[in-house]
Amino acid sequence: MAVMKIEYYSEVLEMEWGVNVLYPDAVRVDRPDDKDIPVLYLLHGMNGNHNSWLKRSHIERLVRSTNLIVVMPNTSNGWYTDTQYGYDYYQAIAEELPRVLKRFFPNMSDKREKNFIAGLSMGGYGAFMLALKSDRFSYAASLSGALSFHDSHPDDTELARPAYWRGIFGELEDWTSSPYSLESLAKQSDKKTKLWAWCGEEDFLYTANNHAVKNLQQLGLDITYSHSPGKHEWYYWEKQMERVLAWLPIDFQLEERLP
Predict the structure, then answer these.
(1) How far apart are CA 221 and CA 34, in angstroms?
(2) What pLDDT does 152 receive?
(3) This prediction's pTM
(4) How far apart are CA 20 and CA 13, in angstroms?
(5) Which residue, 39, 56, 57, 50, is CA-closest to 10?
(6) What domain range is 117 assigned to?
(7) Sequence-distant (≥ 6) Cβ neighbours of residue 240 within 8 angstroms
(8) Which CATH number does the domain housing residue 227 bear?
(9) pLDDT 10s digits, 146-155
(10) pLDDT tens for each residue of 171-203
(11) Would you state the pLDDT for residue 158?
(12) How many domains does the chain have?
C-alpha cells in the first residue's frame, strides 16, 4: 500500500491544501477492477486534520491487502460545510477534490456505487452530511458521530465558544429544523445511500446518536445502527473500522496480525 501526501492549490478555498491517499500496490493487488478502483473518503474529527487517521490508527495495515483507494482530506474545524466565515469546505471536498484526485489517479472510480465515505466524531457528521447532500457516495459510515445536537444548541456544548458555532452554522434557533441538520438533509435526499453508525455507550455523544438514528430511520433512510461499551477514543474507532470495511461492497481482506 502506497502512502501519498499531496499538496495542491484549492481554487475553492483559495489556498494551498493537503490530502493524504492510500493507494493499493499493483504487486500485492491484482483484481479485475484495477482500472475502476473503489474509493473510501475517510474524515477526521474535531481538532484533527488529514494526518489524523495515519498518525492515530492502523488504517494502512487494515487495507493493505484490499483493492481500495483511501482518501483522507482536511477540513480543519470546519465541519465539512460551506462555513459562514467564507471557507467552502463542502464544495472543496464534495466537488473539487474528486476532480483533482482523478488527474493524479485516473484508475480511481467515479461511479457512485464505488464511492464511499466514513468518519469519526465531527467526521461522522461530515460523512452523513456529504453523502446525503452530494449524491456522490453510495455508502456512508459514522463512528461516534456528532450526528445531532439533541435537545440543545451547538452553543450549549463545551466543545467551543458560541462565536465559533456561529461561524460554522450561523444563527440557529432550532438544530433539527436547520438546513445543516441531518434530518433536514434526509428529507431532500433520494434515500438510496446506505448508512452505518456505531457509538460507544460511555461516549458523550451516545444519546445524540440514539436520537439522530431514530429520526433518520423514521424518515425512511436505510441505516444500520449498533452500540457497545466504549468511549470517545481511537481504540474503539479502529476496532469498528474493521466492521465498516467488512460492510462495504468491496473484497476486504484483513491481514493477520503478528503475534
Answers:
(1) 32
(2) 54
(3) 0.93
(4) 17
(5) 50
(6) 2-247
(7) 143, 198
(8) 3.40.50.1820
(9) 999 866 555 5
(10) 776 777 888 999 999 999 888 999 999 999 999
(11) 57
(12) 1
